[in-house]
Amino acid sequence: AAERSRAEVDATLQTAKLNPAELLPAVHCLSFGPQAGGGECCLLQLEPGLCAELEAGRSLVIRGEKDERAVLCSKDKTYDMKIADTSNMLLFVPGCKTPEELNGDLESCNIIHSQIAGFSKNYWELRRCRPKLKKLRKLLMEDPYEGPDNQKDQTSTFSKYTTEDLLSLIQASEEEILHQLQVIDACKIEGYWRILDFDYEMKLLNHVTQLIDSESWPLSKVPLCACLEELGSLEPREMIQHILLSYGRKYVDDGEVFFEMREDKICRAIARMLLQNAVKFNLSEFEEVWQQSVPEGMTTRLDQLQGLALVDKSSRPETIFLLKVEDLPEDNQERFNSLFGIREKWTEVDITPYIQDLCAEKQTVGALLTKYARSSMLNGVKVYNSRRPLS
Amino acid sequence: SGGAGALAQWVLVELQGEVQPRQSGDLAGSLLGDLHYTHEGVPVLIVGHHILYGKVVQLEKPFAVLVKEGGAPQPSPTEPHRQYTVTALIKTKLLFKTRPKPIITHVPKKV
After folding, report:
1. Is the pLDDT reported for residue B24 higher than 70?
2. Residue ranges in chain A whose pLDDT is less than 50
3. Residue B86 lies in a domain
4. Between chain A and chain B, how many beta carbons pairs sit less than 8 Å apart?
5. What is the mean pLDDT of chain A?
6. Would B111 be classed as within a structural domain?
7. Domain final residue pick, A128, A153, A178
8. Are residues A76 and A123 in the same domain?
9. Which domain holds residue B90?
10. Residue B76 pLDDT exceeds 80
């Protein structure tokens, strides 16, 4: 269609009985661009901060496989995406000026031919969500690193993932992924992110704790160099360093690198090692063996096992069994179903370590319990059970 | 993904109801109407035989305009995960919510 002329615009104004003197001289003649009906454009409503990120030249990425609900990731946050319908028609117009932008130009009677790039009755809405990181551990557990002597490692790279691989497979932002890799003590071996096989990890830890013991080093001042020297013939230096970084806090004193060993984490790992060999243990027997198994100078406490093991106070004698929060479902409802399947009634103290990670930004454990559980009193203590009848 | 270099700023025009072409055939290339502004900054849109008065709204939550790469069909809730490029940002909308005034019954102002 031919572009409208000033004469035609004026004629329309006259027919409409509008007074040109009351209007700014510039007019936008809106028409539909060639691609307008194609549906290739869509609108994404931006949460605070995202607009600034885009303007700074940073990217937003939509992630999700065919069986996953899509999420949007900025550099450090993850958002659920949802379609919002309006009852109105939204037209997107490039090069359309606002009155402020036109006001500097009172003289010219110009026509701005604006092409509508697209239109929609809906747009994508974002809601900040927890990054979906369970898959990260699952992927890395496909092929845990068992040490350099392990034959398996020389062969395929099938279940091995680089940072790029993880970015394309995990529904989370890059920062959230890198942070989680640190949390789970993953390490990069030959360019691939690996999680240590637990037995190998304990073997490494044992080398270190034995050395600390034989050298009588204080647990708060373990020298890196000496460790590498003494243990370098037994294990790769990178692995010795990795285990020290995982189980200690690195610091520099007088130019030398030392580690302050993390008592809670070491005790917890040893507990896991003991507990994984049976369905459950007599609690007092376990506590005795556990204390004897940890390095000299360390003290075991049951609260070190939050999210790792659960004590059954109702059995006689009391027992303890392994229950790792990372083995439980990631979805809120599924997590609660799973927990109530394990135990019918939970106190808040017992259940908190197993639902803490479900809390969204600014959400409390109490709010989760209100939503997903029903409370009652049992022997004067407040307990939570499932909202739904379990089969 | 976004990109380096300034992003274009577009404007959203929000209308009630449907937009339909006058002639049969699709919309591409057809005229919508003339957009004027009064001296007070009120947007006035003449569409067909209607005058619509609206207002300029600064969006609390701006929009990004995503363009699907590869020219595939409209993203749906089940299949949104493809390659998109952020083409433009929209921080302003022209909201036409008032009922359109038919041109025929428009009362002329006294000159």
Report:
1. no
2. none
3. yes
4. 218
5. 91
6. no
7. A128
8. yes
9. 8-21+30-70+80-101
10. no
Predicted TM-score (pTM) of this structure = 0.81
Per-residue pLDDT for B21 more than 70?
A: no
Task: Tell me the chain A residues in contact with residue B86 when contact means C-beta distances shorter than 8 Å.
Answer: 54, 60
A11 and A121 part of one domain? yes
Q: Give me the pLDDT at residue A34, please.
A: 82
- Tell me the HSE value of B64 on the side-chain side, using a 13 A CA sphere: 29
Residue B106 lies in a domain: no
Convert the pLDDT of each residue in B51-73 to its tens digit: 899 999 999 999 999 887 754 44
CA A215 to chain centre: 40
The answer to whether B36 contacts A23, with C-beta atoms less than 8 Å apart, is yes
Query: How is residue A104 written in tokens?
Result: 């500097």
Task: List all residues of chain A from 100 to 159 with a beta carbon under 8 Å from chain B.
Answer: 100, 102, 114, 116-119, 123-124
pLDDT exceeds 80 at position B50: yes
Query: Which structural domain range is residue A176 located in?
Result: 133-195
Q: Do A16 and A49 lie in a common domain?
A: yes
Contacts of B7 in chain A (CB under 8 A): 54-55
Does A274 fall in a domain? no
How many separate domains does chain A show?
4
Strand order across the A256-261 sheet: A222-223, A256-261, A248-253
Is residue A186 within 8 A of residue A179, CB to CB? The reply is: no
Token couple for A172: 């989370």
Considering the domain architecture, whether residues A115 and A227 belong to the same structural domain is answered as: no
In the β-sheet with A309-312, what is the strand arrangement from edge to edge?
Answer: A281-282, A319-322, A309-312
Residue B108 lies in a domain: no
| pLDDT at A223 (0 to 100) | 97
Cα–Cα distance measured from residue A112 to residue A28, given in angstroms and rounded to the nearest whole number: 5
Q: CA A199 to CA A197: how far, in whole Å?
A: 6
| pLDDT value for A390 | 58
ipTM: 0.79
What are the chain A neighbours of B110 within 8 Å (beta carbons)?
A: none
A85 belongs to a structural domain: yes
